UniProtKB/TrEMBL annotation:
<keyword id="KW-0285">Flavoprotein</keyword>
<dbReference type="GO" id="GO:0016491">
    <property type="term" value="F:oxidoreductase activity"/>
</dbReference>
<dbReference type="InterPro" id="IPR016167">
    <property type="entry name" value="FAD-bd_PCMH_sub1"/>
</dbReference>
<keyword id="KW-0274">FAD</keyword>
<dbReference type="InterPro" id="IPR016166">
    <property type="entry name" value="FAD-bd_PCMH"/>
</dbReference>
<dbReference type="InterPro" id="IPR005107">
    <property type="entry name" value="CO_DH_flav_C"/>
</dbReference>
<feature type="domain" description="FAD-binding PCMH-type">
    <location>
        <begin position="1"/>
        <end position="175"/>
    </location>
</feature>
<dbReference type="Pfam" id="PF03450">
    <property type="entry name" value="CO_deh_flav_C"/>
</dbReference>
<dbReference type="InterPro" id="IPR036683">
    <property type="entry name" value="CO_DH_flav_C_dom_sf"/>
</dbReference>
<dbReference type="InterPro" id="IPR036318">
    <property type="entry name" value="FAD-bd_PCMH-like_sf"/>
</dbReference>
<dbReference type="InterPro" id="IPR002346">
    <property type="entry name" value="Mopterin_DH_FAD-bd"/>
</dbReference>
<keyword id="KW-0560">Oxidoreductase</keyword>
<dbReference type="GO" id="GO:0071949">
    <property type="term" value="F:FAD binding"/>
</dbReference>
<protein>
    <submittedName>
        <fullName>Xanthine dehydrogenase, FAD binding subunit</fullName>
    </submittedName>
</protein>
<dbReference type="InterPro" id="IPR051312">
    <property type="entry name" value="Diverse_Substr_Oxidored"/>
</dbReference>
<dbReference type="Pfam" id="PF00941">
    <property type="entry name" value="FAD_binding_5"/>
</dbReference>
<dbReference type="InterPro" id="IPR016169">
    <property type="entry name" value="FAD-bd_PCMH_sub2"/>
</dbReference>
Amino acid sequence: MDSLARVHFPATLSEAAAILRARPGARLIAGGTDLLVKHRNGLLPEVTDFIDVTGLGLHEIVLADGQVRIGSGCTMTAVAGHPLVRERFPALVQGAMQVGAFQIRNAATLGGNVGNASPAGDSIPPLVSLDAVALLFGPDGRRTVPLAEFFTGPGKTVLQPGELIEAFLLPDRRTAGAFLKLGERRAHAISKVSLAFSCWESAPGRREVRIALGAVAPTVIRCRKAEELLSAAPWPPPAELVDKARALVVEAARPIDDLRSQKEYRRRMTGVLFQRALEQVRA
Ligand SMILES: Cc1cc2nc3c(=O)[nH]c(=O)nc-3n(C[C@H](O)[C@H](O)[C@H](O)COP(=O)(O)OP(=O)(O)OC[C@H]3O[C@@H](n4cnc5c(N)ncnc54)[C@H](O)[C@@H]3O)c2cc1C
């Protein structure tokens, strides 16, 4: 860490929010797996202070008031291994388990993955597919924002000065789901394309469906037209509807060419991941 950066260890959320607002060059730090890599590579010249959030009690996963509340400081290992998550949210378990290797998952937090706001963050499509809401804490109190509306661009969020993510709130329901990612290798690689599929029973023979795509737009996006089509169809959906839904998913993707992949390949693989996810959920 740069010897000029000051590190703060607040004991309360209010203290953390106050430091964050008072010091424009301050950044929250949780597992440090994103932040310290950038800092060591000289990519954060504006950062003057780090605010360590690990002492703020953000590590709980609890069921209360019809919601599963996952503290933003929970590591990927903790999220993927928790019974409340394993029994309800398979897409999130799969997403958390595909972040880096063991060592990274033991340090990397859900709040850090979301706070980093990369469209390729692997926990984000699962959370969006599960209708997750971010509980924010700031100098003016708490507020909630649906995660699908939390990101405004790559690395950009609706967080206001002094605000941090306290927890994620997920409706308490048993879902079926899958998270699939395509990277340079089968594991330990940043996503070129990722897709989360979650669904739950809405009426006998019907399922409410959510599909979220990663790394094919400036932010993680939902495929609302495909969701509507499948949510209105009998479950499991007939083959001709699956073909239509697949075309709508591909249409929703807005990929670019970059150092990791090409847009045409990304677009085509979006359809392939959709098909595979649906097969996994139907099995
Ligand atoms: C070798 C390696 C492999 C990786 N592989 C993957 C991968 O496969 N998939 C993937 O998605 N990511 C991967 N990552 C990236 C990284 O591990 C994840 O994004 C991780 O979840 C970040 O969490 P963290 O706790 O380490 O965040 P930090 O590095 O501590 O912080 C990241 C950002 O989030 C902000 N932040 C932290 N906590 C909060 C909070 N409570 N509220 C608001 N903002 C907050 C910080 O200010 C910072 O901007 C990899 C990283 C490495 C080094």
